[in-house]
From TrEMBL:
GO terms for molecular function: diacylglycerol O-acyltransferase activity. It catalyses: an acyl-CoA + a 1,2-diacyl-sn-glycerol = a triacyl-sn-glycerol + CoA. The keyword Protease does not apply. Keywords: Acyltransferase, Coiled coil, Glycerol metabolism, Lipid biosynthesis, Lipid metabolism, Transferase. It holds the Pfam family WS_DGAT_cat. SUPFAM superfamilies: CoA-dependent acyltransferases (SSF52777). Pathway: Lipid metabolism; Glycerolipid metabolism; triacylglycerol biosynthesis. This is Diacylglycerol O-acyltransferase. Residues 310-453 form the O-acyltransferase WSD1 C-terminal domain. PANTHER family: O-ACYLTRANSFERASE (WSD1-LIKE) FAMILY PROTEIN, WAX ESTER SYNTHASE_DIACYLGLYCEROL ACYLTRANSFERASE 4-RELATED. It comes from the Bacteria. It comes from Geodermatophilus dictyosporus.
Length: 467
């Protein structure tokens, strides 16, 4: 049995009626749309490379162990691949509205946790694919690998015919309990019997992690007393607003070269302008206000690309929305990110994540559900940057021209921003609670203004004054 890791199980347990925890994307293609049947046959031909797409999550009775992946004996691809259209000629607003409704709906947790929607009717003879995959199945980096499995690098690529498939027999309830109890006993023993080097290395890792944790306590103390934009957090409803912003990758590279820092530092600085405009419009902006965002960081190693599970940790960054000067915003973000990098270098984040495997499964399930229901006030947003391919991708011979990411919201954090780079573009997908963010377009337009002011500053031109 393939058991969910502690991180993946946490994402699965956190799913609720008002907090669907799938990631997704909207990809637009040029050329005439393929037929529904051709898309279904393509996905069927790719299934042997991603067997998880025919599996569902099965819980262990009484949550005595973490859930396991089992083959779905009733798998039917026609349920997972949907076909729809917008009234011609559908523009960006029509596609965003449709994608917001589709991405805001929960996946059926009793079936394999994914959907693909073929969307026709777009202007300029284009069409789109809306994809959804539950977060317990992939993180952003693994999701990029999946996209490269489904898509082609060659427009003339040939595809194998779909092969017959027979599901493996699902274990009984008693078998699930027995396997969970065995795993609970044997996993710690495997660590203890791995040899002296492993034990010594683990002890050293704990010592270095403790030292690193002590070194970040001052930063955490500062964050605890920093005035954050707490009006952005609160209860989450069942509906979503979705918006996006577009930029060129060269714009961020030019700003990085002229102003310093990394591309990610520049991206966060542009997002800071968006949140500044949002809070300014609400009359909730103070000179010292920050928007604290969680920035997921992949700890996936090069040899682990393609494995379909979550290997992520997180940093918390205070976006200085109250700061009027663009250079100072970038400098503040750069200092914080550099500090996080030093901490990550001292901490074995992979060992910390693995410690969750020793947590009692029942306590893990109860703890995740309780934390999601209680909400939190520590951070106000999630911002995740996933590097995509820098070469063209094709689906059934049609070239992908753009892709916008979708990142879920939960636990009182009512807005998330996914960033995705493809070819020479960088796109922002903004997912927000419907009732809390009627002004989500102010944020998306503000991000674009943030890019413009950084480009102007890099070129030595006067940037537009912040409000």
């Amino acid at each position: 049995m393939d058991r969910l890791s502690a991180t993946d199980a946490g994402f699965y347990y956190a799913e609720s009626e008002d907090a669907p925890l799938h990631v997704g994307s909207v990809s637009v293609f040029e050329g005439p749309a393929p037929s529904y049947g051709d898309l279904v046959r393509l996905l069927l031909s790719k299934m042997p490379q991603v067997p998880r797409y025919r599996q569902r999550v099965r819980r262990v009775p009484l949550d005595l162990g973490r859930p396991v992946w089992v083959d779905d004996p009733h798998f039917q691809i026609l349920y997972h691949v949907r076909h729809t259209a917008v009234p011609k000629p559908g523009g960006p607003e029509q596609l965003r509205n449709l994608a917001g409704r589709v991405l805001g709906q929960r996946l059926d947790m009793a079936k394999p946790l994914w959907e693909v929607w073929l969307v026709e009717g777009l202007e300029d003879d284009r069409w789109a694919v809306i994809s959804k995959v539950h977060h317990c199945m992939v993180d952003g980096i693994a999701g990029t690998d999946l996209m490269q499995v489904v898509f082609d690098l060659d427009p003339d690529a040939e595809h194998a015919a779909p092969r017959d498939w027979s599901p493996q027999r699902s274990p009984s309830g008693a078998g699930l309990v027995a396997g969970a109890l065995t795993e609970t006993v044997t996993a710690p023993l495997r660590q203890l019997t791995a040899g002296p080097a492993a034990v010594t290395g683990g002890a050293k890792g704990l010592v270095s992690s403790a030292r690193a944790a002590a070194s970040v306590l001052p930063a955490l103390a500062r964050q605890a007393v920093t005035p954050t934009a707490r009006t952005l957090t609160g209860p989450i409803g069942p509906h979503r607003r979705w918006a996006w912003a577009d930029a060129e990758f060269a714009e961020f590279k030019a700003a990085r070269t002229a102003l310093g820092g990394t591309v990610n530092d520049v991206v966060l600085t542009a997002i800071t302008r968006g949140f500044r405009d949002l809070l300014e419009g609400r009359g909730a902006l103070g000179a010292d206000t920050v928007v604290r965002t969680m920035v997921p960081i992949s700890v996936r190693q090069a040899g682990e690309r393609g494995s379909l599970d979550n290997r992520v940790t997180a940093a918390f960054v205070d976006l200085p929305v109250g700061e009027r000067d663009v250079r100072e915003r970038l400098a503040s973000i750069r200092r914080q990110m550099d500090e996080h990098k030093r901490t990550m270098a001292a901490v074995d984040a992979r060992s910390i994540i693995a410690m969750g495997d020793f947590m009692a499964p029942t306590m893990l399930a109860l703890g995740v559900r309780a934390s999601m229901q209680a909400g939190q006030m520590w951070c106000q947003a999630v911002t995740t940057n996933v590097p995509g391919p820098r070469v063209p991708l094709y689906l059934l011979g049609r070239r992908m021209v753009s892709a916008h990411p979708y990142v879920p919201i939960a636990g009182g954090t009512r807005i998330s921003i996914g960033i995705f780079s493809y070819l020479n573009s960088m796109t922002f997908g903004i997912n927000a609670d419907f009732d809390a963010f009627p002004d989500v377009d102010v944020l998306s337009e503000g991000i674009r203004r943030g890019v413009d002011e950084l480009v102007a500053l890099a070129a030595g031109r006067p940037a537009a004054a912040a409000r």
